[in-house]
Amino acid sequence: MKSKIRIIVFVFSALVLMSGCSKSDSGGNAVLHVMLTDAPADYDQVLIDIQDVQIHTSENDAEGSWQSLEVNAGVYNLLDFRNGMDTLLGTIALPPGEVSQMRLILGPNNQLVTNGNTYDLDTPSGQQSGLKFNIHAILVEGITYTLWIDFDAARSIVERGNGEFGLKPVIRTYTEAISGAIAGNVSPADALPYIMAVANGDTLGTIAGGNGHFMINGVPAGNWTVSFDPVDPYLPVTIYNVLVETSFVEVMDTVYFDQP
Fold this sequence. Notes:
It is built from two helices and 24 strands. The chain is mainly beta. The strands form four sheets. Strands 4, 5, 7, 9, 10, 11, 12, 14 and 15 form a nine-stranded mixed sheet that branches. Strands 2-16-13-3-8-6 form a six-stranded mixed sheet. Strands 1, 17, 20, 23 and 24 form a five-stranded mixed sheet that branches.
């Protein structure tokens, strides 16, 4: 009997006041997209120079376990991403497990524009060691997630007594699974089929491993037709109406191959 594996994501979504603390096959990993969004603020621009985004997993507390995303580095105007707008900062494939922390490495070009005047934002700790915060999301093999970094720009700007401004970010993070997955086994394993899932013009594929197991990752919700094209002399098999739901791994019945 086929089954579904329910994916549970625990999200740490409290506001965090930052101090200066120092394809379809993802190879058995989960995939995490990190997005930047913002709450409204009464400024002309809030310009943040993001040079790197790093993820820390709970598997190893050593400093070396920080991993960098393939980040779109540059200066972002936070106020471009208000009222539901967002932008992709970067993507990373991670082993299943808990993601415990994230940090932003900032460059020197952080500025505030207000009333037509431009002020440099003092962010020494962010430039040196990164702006660090907790996220605590559970990632499961085969599932694609989006994590949003939600800046509160109005509360993140600190006005100094000398007319200067500093950046002390107030950030909320939240995570959502945005896909499901299809998994199962084939028999005999030496049929080594290419497996293709098709729905609404989308085609996703993978190859069964030597043990007969397969998983197609990052599958959008919907009804899929899954075709198995084995090596000779085995005959192909097609399974219709494979229902995929967001945040579930759809585990198919074992697929058996006949010979002519």
